Amino acid sequence: MFTLKIHTVDFPQPLHTTFTSTTTSSTAAAHPNNNPKPVEQMGVAHLFRQLPSASHPAVTVASVIARTTVLFVVAVPNYLSPNDFLVFCGNHVPYFEEILFLKNDGMEDRYSVLIRLDSQLAADGFYCSYNGKRFKPPEVEVCHIYFAQSVEYTDSAEIASIPPPDYTELPSCPVCLERLDPDTSGIQSTLCDHSFHCSCVSKWTYLSCPVCRLCQQQDEKPACAVCGTFKNLWICLICGFVGCGRYEKGHASGHWSDKQHHFSLDLEKQQIWDYVGDRYVHRLNHSKVGGKSVIVNSRCSSVEECGTCGYDEEEGLDGALFSSKIEGILDEYNRLLASQLDTQRQHYESLLAEAKSRKETSTAKAVEKAIFSRTHDLQYKLEKYAEEKKAVADRNQELMKKQEFLRNKFKEIEEREKSRLKSKDERIIDLQEQIRDLKVYVEAQRMVTNMADSDGIRGGTILPVESNQSSGSGNSKRRTKSGRRRN
């Protein structure tokens, strides 16, 4: 059984794909949401496998308790886009409830996929259909699927790397970066204790280990890994790199300058050189006479002196001292190797910290630059809109002044027209009264002419009649004219 821990500080982002599943009517009716919404997240996945024990025997995929509806697809090649992966899944996509594409900055050519299906039957069918299947026929990468009992998200790398009780984390193959699981593929180990998939290491055409370059055929004559010379060779005690000495072309010291691996062994003299201290750090055991290496005879098993094996008490004491020295040298070498490995770990951790710091700095600079550019654009637009607002306000002020001027001018014209119309009306009224008076006069003349006693009227006198003060001024002329007619 497997459990999954994901170290991430990111939030799932919606992933827009152009995939549209084509299913039958019955499937579409059973699954109305037959197009799941995939999401993408940056993080590091840690896959843990349960260790077999007396209380927890080994469980295989054939067992019901080992299978769940959550499937974890590891090491999907990057040439397969999320849309291509959905096309690869085919008619199983309608059964997906959730699908998460997990990407890691450290492995740009691979990503993982976490899928949750709607039923155990659908999960079993997907596992049987695609586990061990090639993603593309011309390619060699195959699909590896695991049933995940639980999935845990955390923002701490330390917590994510701690396995649950009775679980251990599956290592990854250095070649393909997929998990090394003996249940899914064969595993081959090298002399330097590095493990690989059998299919991956079979493609390696060299005789050395793909990780540390240690030659796997020890019977061949060693040579410099750079120039190929066979003289004055030194081997790195940290990674197994073989290079020529400083009196040849100095590739061994160049390896120390590049990798900071301090200890190197002379293959001819079997002496260890420390590049930091610039001195030998090996321990040689010489005899007190002649300066040659001590040759220790095996202890005689006879109780009495046999005189044939050449063993005596002094030689036995020397042998015990030599054995204790060998043990002390071995312990000191182990301590030196452990300290060197710890130094290398600190060195690479500092490099990772520097790379992370540079990445954070570049990200912060990019964000700051983007914010500054965005702020500058917004400030420019704000100034532009302020200028437009000012121009509109000035134009509005001018229009208001012009409107006021036209309003005053209209009032003047209106008053002038009113006065003109009033004077015209008065003139019309006056003319009408004059016409009426003329009509009355003409009528009076006609009546006088027709009267029989015209001579008496001719000698008469016309007297004016005073107008009534209480009557309106509008009827004064009319009353005056009527008075004339009475007379």
TrEMBL record:
Residues 207-300 form the UBP-type domain. Residues 382-434 form a coiled coil. SUPFAM superfamilies: RING/U-box. It comes from Rehmannia glutinosa (Chinese foxglove). The keyword Coiled coil applies. SMART domains: RING, ZnF_UBP. CDD domains: RING-H2_BRAP2. Residues 466-475 have a biased composition (Polar residues). Residues 476-487 have a biased composition (Basic residues). Residues 173-213 form the RING-type domain. The keyword Transmembrane does not apply. Residues 452-487 are annotated as: Disordered. PROSITE patterns: ZF_RING_2, ZF_UBP. Keywords: Coiled coil, Metal-binding, Zinc, Zinc-finger. This is BRCA1-associated protein. Pfam families: BRAP2, zf-RING_2, zf-UBP.
